[in-house]
Fold each of these.
Amino acid sequence: MSSRRAFWRSENWGGWEWALAVFLGIMLLHSLAILLFTRGFLLTRSELSKYSQCEDISESPCFPPNHDQNANASCWTKPAVDRLVIIVLDAIRIDFVAPSAFFAEKKPWMDKLKVFHELASQNQSSARIFKAIADPPTTSLQRLKGLTTGGLPTFIDVGNSFGAPAIIEDNLIQQLVQNGKRVVMMGDDTWVQLFPHHFTTSYPFPSFNVKDLDTVDNGCITNLFPTLYKGDWDVLVAHFLGVDHAGHIFGVDSTPMIEKLEQYNELIKKVVGVLESQSGPGGLHENTMLLVMGDHGQTLNGDHGGGTAEEVETAMFAYSLKKPPTPLPAVDDNSSCQLDMHGKWICINSFYQLDFAATVSALLGLPFPFGSIGRVNSELFSLAGGTWNQDMSTSDDDQNPWKVESWLQNYVNVLCINSWQVKKYIDVYSSLSLIGFSEKDLLHVSEIYAQAQELWSITSKNFPLNKSQSSFASLPSVKRLINAYSRFLESVAALARSNWTEFNLKMMGMGFCIMLSSLYLHVYLIKRLDKLCGLPTCHSGYFRSFFGVHFPYIVVLIRAFSFLSNSFILEEGKVAGFLLATTAMLHLRDAIMKKMMLLEAIALSLLVPLLRIGIELGQLKQAVNSLFLKLDPSKTSGIDNNSQFWMYFAEVLPILALTVIAYLLYKSLACCSSQGILKYVIVGTLLNYLLIPIHWATDSSLLSVPMLLGGGNLIPRVTYAAGILQLSLVIGQIFVRKRSSNWEESTVVKALALLSSWSSTIIVLSGKQGPLVVIGLLIGGWCIIRLKTLGQNAENSCSGSSLSYALSMTQWSLLAVCVFFSSGHWCAFDGLRYAAAFVG
Amino acid sequence: MTKMLFLHISCGLGLVSAFWVAHNFYSLTLLQNPAKTLRTLWAVEASVVILLYSLFRRNPDQCSYLRAVLRGLLGLPTGAVVNALGAIVLGAPVGIQHFEKTIHWSLLMSVLTFVPAACVFGSCWSDWLRVFAHTEAIAACIDWIICIGAHGAVIGAWFGAWPMPLDWERPWQEWPICVTCGAIIGYLVGLIISFGFVVFHNQKQRVKGD
């Protein structure tokens, strides 16, 4: 640092402007590298704003539906159901829904939604439980997008701005509205953000407040039942959030979760009751289908977002109220069956959420969404598919094989339309999008499609166009055709998955190379500066001093390589702690050798395990939470005396730590006076520090301070406002440069003011462990700065060279990483700190 | 010269035979029963190390053999405390279920690093400093052996900790196992290097003498 400052003053090399240009250039290079890297890393997919139209079907080689028979609006396929009730239960795991017989071990949260088991075992042909497999990222917004568009949304789709996430791609809801269906929505307000103008009626409820388990659900329930009795809608969407929120707050294995599941059991029972009561001929729900589904799963801690089996596997339950007289055969049998507790068979099929949009469109007779790459699922389709022929065939008891064949031909036709639409999308996408698919893959897919199409043109000659004709294609040839289409659709899905869920390595490599070259530039400039300022360069003669100089680089390299492994990233806090402790121990050795600054070295070494305790506490946070919940009712009397003390201790400790910080700040303020506004900024921070303990006191139940200040949100808001004000003042001061004589002191005061102005906000946000962590950081920083002089004395030959700061800089960055992790963060979706959102 | 060779070989063989004893007499392996295996290891190796290094004690006129052995026995728990603290600072797990393993591991580390120096130097602080901190100013062969062996064990243990956070879910990734293996391998490598040093040193002196 001092060399740089010397350079700034020395002005013999072009002076200020030149230096600024160098710094700006390096910054530009850095940002370019980061931009390129993230472009490759954060997967992108272009959204096409093309929509499927009803008339498009005439372009397809497949049979259009028979308009003469079905008077009501049918577009691409023959509608199988008239009305659809979709109940979305957020974050439902498959083991909530499926009977416990399917799993190795029965857990307390299993078998709570018994209504599904009963329905599925009683109505084998019209009700079924599916294991729905979602595609990552498993967050609600992305999943809803994926479900309705039938595509694979990535975190950042091109054309999506953060402010308005409305879907601009073609989607299921859009198709419903376009074809005159009326859609009613209730529950999670994400739907309204995604589809702002589509619903005829909507009852949105805010989804952000994770701590609130009931508002959304109760709102849903009060609106759901009146709506079920009404006839003014075609599709109803009810999105319940209780399970998701219960998971986030309490975890899966908790009483609130089980209560929620029991509540849902009653709810679904009631809904089914209402639907069945109206399902007679001519009733409101004569041809209604009920779909109960999760949008994604959750881990035992209640987190989701990633791609592990727990998060990806969710459930779907389908129940068609118009019962087909005979069960239809599954086309490809992927179901697994088990005896449930009452000795009845229950079967579970797997279902990809990718297929949802296409299947529902086919059921309702809508055009498939333009961007859908899913395949019409045969099991879900067959649940309602059997209902077509009921009106037509009067004496159907002895015509079973006829019906099966007719259904199969219908399904083949639907698959033909499905494949035609997917092929069209792939062609349009690769012609329009900047980053399309590779030529080889496209050719491969086209070949498969051509084969299937050839088969179609041979087989379809034998299809009956209407009922009066009675010549059939043979069953095996139809099955062959189904297989050909399935193969095409599967290969497209695999291609899309690899393209939209894998990284763009070229882009990442380029960004990485630019980053490396900018680092080289850095080193080169620093060396040049050293030479310019007449500082001696280091000559490493002994092995020992060579090791001393290069040790920090080795540490940095180890850390860099540790990022190549996934498991090291998960343990990043511990790895950083390990390396920091290693450097601290080397310092300790040096200190013992020179018999000076022993205290600092020991303090630094001891700081590391303390920070590690913080990291481990943070990781245990949720487990501990649910543990306390379980312990509290049973053992409160037993551990009362002991825990009371500890709880008081836990309350008082952060306040003590905060006092220490305030005192240090006050002392540093006293030692360098004379800076007008900046001084007031620091005083303002001190006042904020006074307010923060009051806020904690009003929050905590132990000290029972009466609520003086009108709700708990006032103080954090005051702190935020003061923080912003202070920050703007400080920034203003920095840019109004004064020619002061004492360069060093004014820099120190400015830095101090800048730090203090946002410290209070950060302390409020990070909760009660905030001040403890800040104290740790201060002690660590102090030790490192003190120990730096130790290292300098060791190598007299190169003291003052910028490179001799390398060790302390490395230590500082490692310490910063440790502190980041010990304040309760870690690198996973579940590491996001929800608590911060509730402060003010 | 032969004495040195004997010292090196018996230290190495001590460890190997300790493994053999643990395996054949008590049917213990490091994987299944780390705490008990470590106990056997350090007990066997400690007896070898203390008895042998006490022969090389500094100032043999003023200090009897028995006293050197006693110093070694005292150094054993002291070194264990230092090693345990170091391990905890570097990230060893703290907890009741790990307590026994940590104790036995640190006793073994103490045997490899601390006890030889305690036997040879006793409580002479300047000697300790000279060997462990100012590694340049080393004169006698025994200093080299102590210094390189101890550094080998510590550096080996440090590297041994690397595979611990990997998610391979292997049993040997548990706390003291891979660290122990690293330490032992490091110590053996250290022994080989130090023997090389001793040979080199002797030749140089012989050349000087000529």
Amino acid sequence: MTALLLSLVIIVGIVSIVQMLRVFDLSNALKGTDEIQVNDQETNNIRWAFVVFFLGFFAFFIYLVASFGDQLLPQSASLHGLEYDWLMDLNMIIIITAAGITHILLMVFLFKYAKNVSPKATFVTHNNRLELIWTTTPAVVLTIIVIYGISAWNSMLMDKPEDSINIELYARQFDWTARYAGEDNQLGKANFRMISTTNALGVINSSSIDDRLNEYDDQIFELEASREKVFPGGVSDDEILDNIILVKKNRAAVLQYEEQSKNENFDIANDDIITKVEFHIPVNKSVNFSIRSQDVLHSAYMPHFRAQMNAVPGVITHFYFTPIITTKEMKKITGNPDFDYLLLCNKICGAAHYNMQMNIIVETEEEYNKWLAEQPKFNVAQAQ
Amino acid sequence: MLRKHNKNYIGGKKMAGHKETFITKYLFSYDHKMISRQFLLTGTTMAFIGMAMSLLFRLQLAFPGESFAVLNFFLGDKWAPGGVLDPNMYLALVTIHGTIMVFFLLTAGLSGTFANLLIPLQIGARDMASGMMNMLSYWFFFLSSVVMIASLYVESGPASAGWTIYPPLSALPQAMPGSGTGMTLWLVSMSFFIVSSLLGGINYIVTVINLRTKGMNMLRLPLSIWALFVTAILGVLSFPVLFAAVLLLIFDRTFGTSFYLSDIYIAGEALDHTGGSPLLFQHLFWFLGHPEVYIIILPALGISSEVISTNSRKPIFGYRAMVGSILAIGFLSFIVWGHHMFVTGMNPFVGAVFTFTTLLIAIPSSVKAFNYLSTLWKGSIRYTPAMMFSIGMVSTFITGGVTGIILADAALDINLHDTYFVVAHFHIVMGLSAVMAMFAGVYHWFPKMWGRMLNKKLGFVHFWLTFITAYGVFFPQHFQGLAGVPRRYYANTEFPLFDGLSDISYMVTMFAMVGGLAQFIFLFNFIYSMFKGPKAPQNPWGSNTLEWTTPVEHVHGNWPGDLPIVHRWAYDYSKPSKDGTDYRIPGQDFVPQTVPLEEGEIDGEGH
């Protein structure tokens, strides 16, 4: 019924526009007005309309700043974030000035040189001096922007403090896991072939390799057994064989890995600490994140800390920062008792991309150490 | 030679005289004017589909999780159960909307229409260098459009990994349903599209280089031709790289290679892929992708240069500087792709280099903006709908361009990457500017395409509604982005952080609805005027360029007699006579390119 009504409305609408146009055409033909060229009355209306539009546009900008300005770049909670905000302010002032001046010129020219008030144009082809000015001015301004921008970029990514706390952020569809390096501040190695229900991050220590090899053996055994129970319409024998080959390949890779890294100290993984849902970091200490992904691209985005780095399968990426405001203090600053720092996913990763989040708790070093001590170590959790 | 070819050999068969069948005239036409119209109609159809998709997902963004009969009507019970949009379908809509707008409307629709129409007409050629390649270019585009639309009807849904289709998400059907058959069709469609683009591009380049009429040297070319020429070069150099990227992705998906895949554990199993890199895809993709945005914006700049100069009744200010900036932008566009990848973990030093090269582009771009302004200065502006859209384009080019300075800054990109700030930036600078210029082109050259005039009053209404709602839609998104709202989020309600910004989502959707409806005014005007519009005069806008010397009724070979001979540049508007008492041609404020120079008369900028 609604569809019928809707189509009726549309049809009536189209018919009425056609009729209106006919009337327009007829009356224009009768009056002898030009249907093609824009007359002076219209020109005058349009030049005023442009003035109104641009003033309205400026007003819209001011309205948006007034209504939402306090939510833009919320209070920076990291050390480099302060530099970031300063740089953003500088750039914003430059671009708002540039866009403002050019738009005001545009508005004035559109008003002043409309056909009805400026019937004759002046023949000017170019002006070398003017063009030199508006080539060099942007060049100089951009030089300033480039210099400040690149030096800020370098300090944000290339001056990592030596004593940073190492934490791994591990992404997968659709959640985050954090892994702390533990007392040795060294993250144990991990490999995607080591991932199992009991070892979600594929962390390697001597017992996890044995566990994994056993699991692979069990899998092969089960698959072989299922070959006997093949029935039409179900999983075919070929598919099972393919699966067996894949599992055997993975098993061989793990064996090879074990072989290659005989001299490595797998025990550095033992004191690692794995947490989900939320992770804690101490205030005023540099934190170095190693970011990994299990499946597709993700991006670790922490807007309050002006921090973002993609999680790329097969690669470990890094980002470091120093938080400067605890969650408790931030609750006071924002006046919001429910405030929490968030880690979001900011690279399209699938259906629940929008809900892939983790809370970050920034607290004093004592609180942090106390919390960390309560978390089970990897080898302890493994044994359970 | 060429003329004979076009007249007598149509569809590979020798035809007697002008006899044409429906098939040779309207379907497999070799005539550039017909092919141009085919591109425009197909591009517009695709644009309406792309726009409708954006309106559907805007509903979800303004009213997260609410039920709409219209969603259920279009998407059915599978993708909008009970009228609530499915998150996978949300991503699919976003993906196909982006693909259609970037490639089908603003690459093929814009370049295909105006390069085909304007290149032969404005350089004084009988047709394109190869009519058959031109015909094939259109039909590959058509095929590619059909495949893309067909992918919407696949059971597992169309491609949904974003228009940039980053693997592994796009490579693994386990990762999302859209990466199954839908993605295969997307890749097939894009392969056809690339073939179309290359056939067209090579043709445009050859035509501009070889088929200019007598007297039409390169520095007498209208800026529209310069822009389309450089665009074609960019396309020919960069689309093959996309083809390589697409091909390798097809290999990874189908033949088990590992170009882009490594160390992946998904759906309970460790995949047998090692050694590849998802970043390789990004490098290949953006090596096309960044020139691609200039493939979109350069024709727009060319068109608006023409329209603004004609309707200001003034020469374009600094013609040579404009040509120089087109060339500079074209060159720089190849060495900036890394700015799309600042936060992929690339070496920070590389990031610094890309920051530098990217910011360089701001110089030729600002030269262009200033030259537009100074063309208006001391002009005598005719507010035709085409002119108004071109002015809109100047405004959006500036507004969207300046935010590019922020995003080009690697340090500032850290917090803004993949947020709505990016969405706002590229929609305004690339989307809106190009769409505005495309409208300008259609309003300006409609009389040349169909021999009839568009209704100017509907044009005014269309312009104002479009201009106001366009800013209404995209300008507030800067604010969402600065607050940290990520793009491609199905909803922002899963955590309280962005609750204070829901008003913006609502406002944007309302503007989008009105703006979307306004396009039907254009559609109506377009179709109505095609058949019922007033007959076009020979030279409705008092323009200098050669296309207005051809007869209003289309003929094969464009000019019934000899080709016109060019004696001057295209911008002698309001040129005074020698003694300065009247115009160069008494009583007429323009001097067509075919008018010979007087003794002692300076041509062009007079260097």
Amino acid sequence: MAGKHVNPTRMELTRLKKKRVTAIRGHKLLKDKRDELMRQYLDLVRENMELRKRVEAGIRSANRNFVIAKAGMSAAALNTALMAPKQEVSLEAVEKNVMSVDIPVFKYKTRTADENDIYSYGFAFTSSDLDGAVKSLADILPDMIRLAECEKACQLMAAEIEKTRRRVNALEHVIIPETEENIRYITMKLDENERSTQIRLMKVKDMMLEEAHHYDCLVH
Amino acid sequence: MYKIAVIGDYDSIYGFATLGLSICPVRNREETRRKLKELADGDYGIIYITEAAAAQVQREIEEYRETPLPAIILIPGVSGNTGAGVEGVRKTVEQAVGSDILFGGVS
């Protein structure tokens, strides 16, 4: 099966044996890495799905609230009310290394600590529905941030798992069998050479004896 | 320090402005693509994009899939939930596991 030609030499044999040892060790390590990644990934993706469902439901109901709020006010009044936001969110991203995958961890800070600063308008000329709508949106913000973190981590880990899995499979089904095949080929070739040398020597010995003492080689 | 942006049609996203997120109303595909590029190359850590807008720029979103930042996250818009977000999660499971073994029965 040996795909390409290998030199049947001892040096090549030693090289291949070393390669096989490395490949087997690499295979074991990568397999462990894949299993651990997969374990963590499955936990994470379950959380991701849960968060996503919660956030989607939250946004849907917030949107509904906004539609109601919009219905109770003129578009111009609504736009004016939301024109100048008071609050500002800044995000801090730290990279966390999980099994050699760099996943971001987000921490968010609001500009002011007062949670009532989400209302960027006076209460006199807006409907109370708007307050409720804004509040419902503010309530799901922490979940949204967590969702972003979770979903990004899932995407990155999925890519890494795929890569690792390919490597494991390549080692298991291609590199290691090929190396072993080559080792066998070289061993057999070397043995064959050994035997033929032996035979050649015996033959030469016979010829020399015959020449010196006129022995008949058939006697043996 | 990073910022958070929301991309989508104005009606779906204007509420986020009150929370202090940057809102980027877009109307067509070209605008969405340009805005997404601009935000992703700028200092935005998370970009929320409505499913409707995301459907127009799938290729661009795919490009940022394997970079640590920014995280591009799909959210439902005012016109309803298309299920693209859940589909995205399912796709990562398929990529990692080989087939969707977790959420296969859930629709």
